[in-house]
Design brief:
Elements: E1 14-15, E2 21-22, H1 25-32, H2 45-56, H3 64-68, H4 73-90, H5 95-103, H6 112-126, H7 133-139, E3 146-151, E4 154-159, H8 160-168, E5 176-179, E6 188-193, H9 202-205, E7 211-214, H10 221-237, E8 241-246, E9 256-259, H11 262-272, H12 279-282, E10 285-293, E11 308-313, E12 319-320, H13 326-329
Parallel strand pairs: 6-7, 9-11
Antiparallel strand pairs: 1-2, 3-4, 3-12, 4-7, 5-6, 8-10, 10-11
Helix pairs in contact: 7-10
Length: 337
């Protein structure tokens, strides 16, 4: 089975008997070896010594005085961020426990980048052994912001960071054209649409995030995303669900919904409360899903026997930022694992 997301840090982690990710010294070393932390030629002796000692013992105690001794104020700040992150991680037995604690209310300072990396590495474990590149590309939506383009009803998504980088380089590659809208004269960026003709290329390029995801009901992209979301819920909550894309919500007994992002959550709330939603906002909805529970006993009584509807929507400037934590904290489950 080809490997994927090799730069995620998955191979630096251990797994416990329940299949969850356990932090190791090598995983922590990877953060201390980031470019923002690694000493450069102008680094002071105190910073060089601190880095050397942390690489030897990533769990060593660092008193405030050692950070204060660093000559570079940016260095002091960066070390403070990574050390705080280390403390958050090591208070929990697994990455999953850390993530759940985080999304359920632990609001200590943490860069969004670090949280995205945790989501990626957990997904890498969940999807270990997956032989479907389309599902892996769909999973990228859970930790990478997407730039959305809609042409004749076909929804195309490309990694925002990749689009911006390619636009700066005047574009490269071939396939689905997307636009960056942050410049007075938007630049066209061509990227390969991942489909049946080039699926095998994903294995060599998975760490580049340079393929376009087609998310339309007529294609298989939304089905692939549904399978990823099912496994995400089961892995964290121990609840088996079935998720299927739907064209619309036509349900007079609509009881519960979850927005997979902030935009979709606001639109679904307004629709549920029968508030007026103009056509421009409705057009931002990219996909709807119907979630059903396999075990009725796991569901709150007021939702028993009823589906949960999920929504995914882009912002007014054409971006999609999924919040996978919404499925872990907002489902009507009696007792989450």
């Amino acid at each position: 089975m080809p490997d994927f997301w090799q730069q995620s840090g998955y191979h630096l982690l251990n797994r416990n008997d329940a299949g969850q990710m356990v932090v190791t010294d090598d995983f922590l070393r990877a953060y201390f070896d980031r470019a923002e932390i690694r000493p450069i030629e102008t680094s002071c002796a105190a910073e060089i010594a601190l880095h050397r000692e942390l690489m030897a013992d990533p769990l060593m105690s660092v008193p405030p005085g050692r950070l204060a001794a660093l000559a570079d104020p940016d260095g002091r700040e960066n070390y403070g961020v990574v050390l705080a992150f280390r403390e958050h991680l090591t208070r929990h037995p697994t990455l999953e426990a850390f993530y759940l604690d985080r999304v359920r209310g632990d609001r200590g300072p943490l860069p969004q980048l670090f949280l995205d990396q945790i989501v990626q590495v957990i997904l890498r474990g969940i999807l270990d052994g997956c032989d479907d590149p389309l599902r892996l590309r769909a999973a990228e939506l859970l930790f990478r912001t997407q730039k959305v383009s809609i042409t004749e009803g076909t929804v195309m998504m490309a990694d925002e960071e990749t689009v911006e980088m390619r636009a700066a380089l005047n574009g490269a590659g071939s396939g689905g054209a997307l636009l960056t809208e942050d410049t007075p004269a938007p630049a066209s960026v061509d990227l390969d649409v991942l489909n049946g003709d080039n699926l095998a290329t994903y294995w060599q390029r998975s760490d580049r995030f340079d393929t376009v995801f087609e998310a339309s009901l007529e294609r298989f992209g939304l089905d692939a995303l549904s399978r990823v979301l099912e496994r995400w819920v089961d892995h964290f909550l121990g609840v088996t669900v079935s998720i299927q894309p739907v064209a619309r919500i036509s349900d007079e007994r609509w009881r519960w919904h979850v927005g997979l992002d902030a935009e979709a959550n606001a639109i679904l709330n307004d629709l549920y409360e029968a508030r007026e939603v103009d056509e421009a906002r409705l057009a931002r909805i990219l996909a709807l899903f119907r979630l059903e529970f396999k075990d009725a006993a796991a569901v709150a009584p007021e939702v028993a026997g009823r589906p949960v509807y999920l929504g995914m929507a882009m912002t007014a400037d054409g971006r999609l930022r999924l919040k996978p934590q919404n499925l872990l904290v907002n489902l009507p489950i009696i007792a989450a694992a």
